[in-house]
Specification:
The complex is a heterodimer of chains A (about 180) and B (about 280). By secondary structure, chain A is α/β, with parallel strands linked by helices. Chain A has five helices and seven strands; from the N terminus they run E-H-E-H-E-H-E-H-E-H-E-E. Chain A is globular and about 45 Å long. Chain B has eight helices and ten strands. In chain B, about 40% of the residues lie in helices and about 25% in strands. The chains are: A alpha/beta (about 180), B alpha/beta (about 280).
Amino acid sequence: MSEYRLQTPLTEEDILQLKVGDKVLLSGIIYTARDAAHKRLLEALAKGEELPFPVEGAVIYYVGPSPAPPGKVIGSAGPTTSYRMDSYAPTLHKLGVKATIGKGKRSPEVKEALQKYKAVYFGATGGAGALLSKCIKRAKIIAYEDLGPEAIRALQVEDFPLLVVNDAYGGELYVTFD
Amino acid sequence: MRVIRASEISEAVAKLVVEANLFLPEDVKEALHTALEREESEAGKEILSQLIANYKLAEESGLPLCQDTGLAIFFVELGEEVKVEGSLKEAIQAGVRQGYEKGYLRKSVCDPFSRQNTKDNTPAIIHLDLVPGDKLKISFMAKGGGSENMSRCTMLAPAQGFAGIKNFVLKRVKEAGPNPCPPIIVGIGIGGSFDLAPILAKKALLRPLDKFHPDPEIAAKEKELLAEINNLGIGPMGLGGKTTCLGVKIEVHPCHIASLPLAVNIQCHSARHKEVIL
């Protein structure tokens, strides 16, 4: 298992070197989206509208942060459970999203999409939201502000600690019972 | 009759919800440290170390332990000799509103159909019980959605007995895998009715990790299930290891001769709860 420092947007070359269990410290801009934002993103696409962020090489972080107290960039900001976004993920990967960040298992359809569109699924530590917020240097709402914690934010992250849970080769990091 | 003002209750609740979200209970902290000492998987040890660093940082920084500051759940025991001046339930809701706003906690409650956020984390779920005495005990739990989603209940046939219960619990924990943020705590409600079993399971989660059920036979079942869950090897965050579960807590209640109701309420490692007695 290797360790990498990567910068967003991610390229196909970045993705293809990653294997299950690799550690990645990610820097650059990543976009937050969870249940309600995904629903709107897909509705926007269905209407032929553009997505509110540059999709090529993008990294989507499944998170709904807590409010930023005075003097802080953001509140706690750990990952939410990813399977709820499984039905949306293949479409976004097809458009160029290179990675998602969350916690928990993905569906066979998502794992297939990762192989087909050369993308990865990263795991971050669930329930370590205070700790992870230290890697977030800036946060700005860029779409769907009315969704509150579910609004889409552009986060500037520095050395955000991740594990490759599903790679572009069909690998799986989690303990499974199949 | 002892009189307690509604405003007093709101103030206590506002403080309670913030503190519970910032300070991990001592028994949970201790369980994480013990787990770290015993864990053999490298990935598991790293996760446990992060969780320990996280609770320390939450205490120092004033940031909540987890961004999911929960659906606010209350178990309230109202003494029969207490008269609340004003509305007890409204006082609790007002306290939730204040605490979640002033404590910079996330508002995570929405309409089930429109998914529109209520923007103040109300309504809280309140389980109210009348008890003897002149005290008001309010137990609060910040219940995260990730672990709640992994919870299940079922109606077993009486013939299935404890073997059936064990089978259902282990199957549930296996299927949940990494999703509910292991190491988990498993609250189990056995008996009662279709509606009571899940409430028992949730209430069980309030019991400190170092306290087993007072009935030695039930305590033995808690220990047996804990050992078997940890033998699954799911480990912290599902990355493998000995630490899948920090505790199994069972609550029981007599049930209909035809039924064996069973509920499994899964709690993540960020087991945030706190109580106040007025």
